[in-house]
Amino acid sequence: MYKRIVVYMTATVIVMIGLAFSQTDQVHAEDIDQEIKELKEKSKKASEKRSSLSSELSELEKKIEENKSEQSEMKNEINSLKDEITDAQKKIEEKQNEVNQKQGEIEEVESEIAALENKIKELEQRIEELKQNIKETQEKIKNREGLLEDRLRNLQRNGGSVKYLEVVLGASDFGDFLNRSQAVSKIMDQDKSILKEHLNDKISLEEDKKELEDSRAQVEANKDELSNQRQHLENEKQSLVADMQELQGLENNLNDKLSEQNNLLANLQQKEQELQEYTMSVEEEQANLAAQERAFDQLIAELEEQKKQEQNNSVEQTSVVSNDYGFTRPTSGTLTSTFGPRWGSFHYGIDIAKPGPGVAVNSVASGVVSRSYHSSSYGNVVFIVHMVNGQKYTSVYAHLRDRFVSEGEQVKQGQVIGHQGNTGRSTGQHLHFELHKGNWNGNKSNAVDPVSYGIQ
After folding, report:
1. For 55, 287, 320, 406, which has the most beta carbons within 10 A of its beta carbon?
2. What pairs with residue 335 in β-bridges?
3. What are 430's strand-pairing partners?
4. Phi and psi for 202 in degrees, rounded to 5?
């Protein structure tokens, strides 16, 4: 809407400028009166539109404040999420430490279980050895018991006692007596020893059996206890792992929320930037409308003066020196960039560059300066409107180092209006020149290739 207003107002200015610089001396006073009347009416409408734009600007500023408030709330939420993430990470670290501790305890218990298993193997080996010993002892006991049974049978056959005295008295001489006495004594000692050894072997056998059974039972009990302890630790570890996984899930959710909030914040910041850019556009449109109002007043005054001169038959003629297209080159140097697609966008003009200080920039045709100001994108820029061969044009001179003309000032073709510079969005000293057939607008829908009009 705003651009249509600017288009409409600028078109009116160009029409009036064309009238002011027309080369004809056939203008009638009645036509001038009508033009003055129309200009006053359009000036009034422009003033009303400017007032409307002020209201729009106020509304935009309100939206920007609301946007900033939303950004502030979003930043607070982001900071809160970051605190929650930090807390979750701390808890995860604590759980991981507990898991590591439990794993260490499990490894210690497993080591003890392994030691007990080795001990059980040793006991089982000892049991096997003892079984062999028991088997041998049992053989000895069996043999002794056979010998004792023989003794008992002999005792029974001899009336229940051994006639050791008859054996001794039956000696043939004293030497034989001594030999028989010693033999009897040995036999009696041997019987006693056999009985004693037999009893000790039985006692030892029972004790060994009991010791091994007790040791094995104790080891098995210790192993079972450690196995239960290991299972308990494993359960605790799994519980900690589950808690840690839950915390990691929470951290992931918080990170997702943080990413979402950051995206929302980026969108708000982008929206703020768009609002700021649009606000700047509205402000520039207000400045354009104000300048057009002044231009209207100037044109009205000039037309009234022209009417007087008409009546005195002294209308001043304006001549424009031009080539086939009516334009001259705006500056000296090399054509470094042409009109058309460039770097993924569209270049609505041409660039002419020449190194060194003081490279003059000239108006391509006679006309009136509609704007002369510093733009965030154009840098130092001058807009001039022309009427060339009955056609309205607007020329734009951007990135100037300096500006020698002001708004509303009449300029001649070839007049120096500034010097090549590097202001605004520029990467080196040059002149960015645009030519618009009709009025200039933000969309640059009227831009034409200057080269097609002999400007290069």
Report:
1. 320
2. 352
3. 421
4. -65, -45
Say how many C-beta atoms besides its own lie within 10 A of residue 67's C-beta: 18
- State how far the Cα of 213 lies from the Cα of 210, in Å rounded to an integer: 5
What pTM value is reported for the model? 0.41
Tens-place pLDDT, residues 378-406: 889 999 988 888 788 889 999 999 999 99
What is the 3-class SS of the chain, one letter each residue? CHHHHHHHHHHHHHHHHHHHCCCCCCCCHHHHHHHHHHHHHHHHHHHHHHHHHHHHHHHHHHHHHHHHHHHHHHHHHHHHHHHHHHHHHHHHHHHHHHHHHHHHHHHHHHHHHHHHHHHHHHHHHHHHHHHHHHHHHHHHHHHHHHHHHHHHHHHHHCCCCCCHHHHHHCCCCHHHHHHHHHHHHHHHHHHHHHHHHHHHHHHHHHHHHHHHHHHHHHHHHHHHHHHHHHHHHHHHHHHHHHHHHHHHHHHHHHHHHHHHHHHHHHHHHHHHHHHHHHHHHHHHHHHHHHHHHHHHHHHHHHHHHHHHHHHCCCCCCCCCCCCCCCCCCCECCEEEECCEEECCEEECCEEEECCCCCCEEECCCCEEEEEEEEECCCEEEEEEEEEECCEEEEEEEEEEEEECCCCCCEECCCCEEEEEECCCCCCCCEEEEEEEECCCCCCCCCEECHHHHCCC
How many residues does this entry show for the chain? Answer: 456
| Dihedral sign of CA atoms 117, 118, 121, 122 in order | negative
Tokens read off for 286: 């207000």
Task: State both tokens at 250.
Answer: 């929470």
Q: Quick one: pLDDT at residue 5? A: 44
CA nearest neighbour of 369 among 329, 299, 417 = 417
Structure tokens at 34: 């009508």
- The token pair at 111 is 């080591």
Q: Which of the 8 DSSP states describes residue 450?
A: G
Spans in the chain with pLDDT lower than 70: 1-57, 60, 141, 144-195, 198, 270-282, 284-285, 288-304, 306-307, 310-323
Residue with tokens 């079972």: 224
